[in-house]
Amino acid sequence: MKKLIIFLLIVENLVSAGVSAGTEIKNVAYLHYKVGAFDFNTTSNLLVDIVDQKLDMQMSCQESDVVMVGVGEKKRALSFSLSNTGNGIDTYEFTPIEADSRDFTVENAAVYIDNGDGVFSESEDSLATEIKVVADGNISLFLVSDIPNNAVNQSANGIKALSSMQGSLSYGESKKLNDFYAVVAMKEEAKSDFCTYGVSPLALELEKSATLSSDKLYKGTTIEYKIDVKVVGVGTIENVLVKDNVPTGTVYIDESLKLDGVLAGDFNGSAILVAFNSIVQENESSEPLHTITFEVKVQ
């Protein structure tokens, strides 16, 4: 009597890096055999394993080069991306960080989540508090800082992400979550990254003042506005445009716009415009290099 026995192993869900945490991996063996003229089929017992959650992430600076800023600038943004490289949903909190070696310290650093357009706007982007990110998902972030008036050279600044699932667990440790475990697979260096601010050795500053034609401001009073253009540093600055909107309730006085006492610039119906092909500062000086004046009359 001959017996023909065939084993067929079927795995109902294949395991891969992308299988979600909590997924059941079911496994059963199918048996077919023959005894004489009779065929028989049966199965083994069903094995069910549940995929554990791998906690992993990657924080990355998205700037391709040093981001140049001017001294005293406010709300300058650096772009970052956080990827949840684990296989389950995780929630993150964010902290601004600074490199140990830096030439200046930024002020009022805060982390914002990008609304999707890739351009920071305080009115449209919101502060990043607790953000939930799905498996294989990523979010865009901004580190936004004020540049101090004494800033020089460069300063590396970044964002550190903290996983709420990880909590106080260390790399390689795990904890029970209902029917499966959460395992910490992220190394410390993956949680943070740095971008770099660089301070331009040259910058322009504007200082504005006003003189009234009368001791009180009323209809018919002429206001002369004076804008001093100062250069911080030594060198050449190109493609400079100074724009000043005429205040509501006043009208621009024709041919009052002057640069260093000479008629110059344009009035477009709502604002004065003065352009410079280049501004050259040969020596350090606190004195204004150019002065723009124009007049308006109160209606």
- Tell how many strands the DSSP assignment holds: 26
SSE order: EEEEEEEEEEEEEEEEEEEEEEEEEE
**First-to-last CA distance:** 116 Å
State the share of residues found in helices, binned by percent. Answer: under 10%
Shape: elongated
Structural class: mainly beta
At the fold tier of CATH, the topology name of the largest domain is: Immunoglobulin-like
Q: Unreliable stretches, pLDDT < 50, 5 or more residues?
A: 1-17
Number of helices: 0
Domains, number: 3
Q: Which superfamily, in CATH terms, is the homologous superfamily of the largest domain?
A: Immunoglobulins
Q: Biggest sheet: strands, sense, closure?
A: 6 strands, antiparallel
User: Mean pLDDT score, rounded?
Assistant: 91
What's the CATH first level of the largest domain?
Mainly Beta
CATH architecture of the largest domain: Sandwich
**Cα Rg:** 33 Å
Q: Which strand-content bin applies to the residues?
A: over 45%
Keywords: Signal
InterPro entries: DUF11_rpt (IPR047589)
Protein name: Similarity
Organism: uncultured Sulfurovum sp
